[in-house]
Amino acid sequence: MLAETDPLTLLRKLIRERFESWRDAKQQSSDKEYKIFKNSVTVKDHTFCEMSQRQVNVREINYALLNHYACNINTDLISVTIDGGVTAEFFNLRCSGSFELWLKDTVIQKRRFKHNPKHDNKARDSSSYVSDLKCPPDEAQALLNTAIGDSGNRLFNYDEKRNKYIIFMDETQWSM
């Protein structure tokens, strides 16, 4: 049962299910000229070209480069100019902080933490199976903002202050 609820296992599953290799379905064109930061150097058949072309094709999707020391660009945004005209920008996520900012800025539907007194130790009897909320509601909201989840009704995050995982259940699915 642990393998199904372990947040790291869920993250790996999410990556396998929802991420793709751009090389399998290229959208960039070999006829176009792609320039990073308006430099004079033209780049071809590159991840930056693909990301910028996809960003131009579908503006509603916020693309980001998960940069784990793959390139030495130290800016939060990377811009690529296509054919000297349109410029596409995407996030350069080079540390956990920038990844959290990107998640916070690109979540389509903001999630709101609703404190439930059933998680207060004083509000229930000792025979209950409900876990105590170990952090204040404002910290729970911050954890919810960057929580990840499975395809069910659970979101997970790690509370570094308390060295514990917190699980957020989507209680809107259940009638009250």
Question: What does this entry look like structurally?
Answer:
With 176 residues, the chain is α+β, with helices and mostly antiparallel strands. 27% of the residues lie in helices and 20% in strands. The protein is built from five helices and eight strands; from the N terminus they run ααββαβββααβββ. The longest helix is centred in the first third of the chain and has 12 residues, at 7-18.
Radius of gyration: 21 Å
Helical segment tally? 5
Using the alpha-carbon principal axes, give the shape. elongated
Give the rounded overall mean pLDDT: 78
Number of strands: 8
What is the element string, with H for helices and E for strands?
A: HHEEHEEEHHEEE
Strand and helix layout:
Layout (H helix, E strand, L loop, with lengths): L1 H4 L1 H12 L15 E3 L5 E2 L3 H11 L6 E3 L10 E6 L4 E7 L2 H11 L30 H9 L2 E2 L4 E6 L4 E6 L7
Parallel strand pairs: 3-5
Antiparallel strand pairs: 1-2, 1-4, 4-5, 6-7, 7-8
Q: Key terms for this structure?
A:
5-stranded mixed beta sheet; 3-stranded antiparallel beta sheet; 176 residues; alpha+beta; single chain; 5 helices
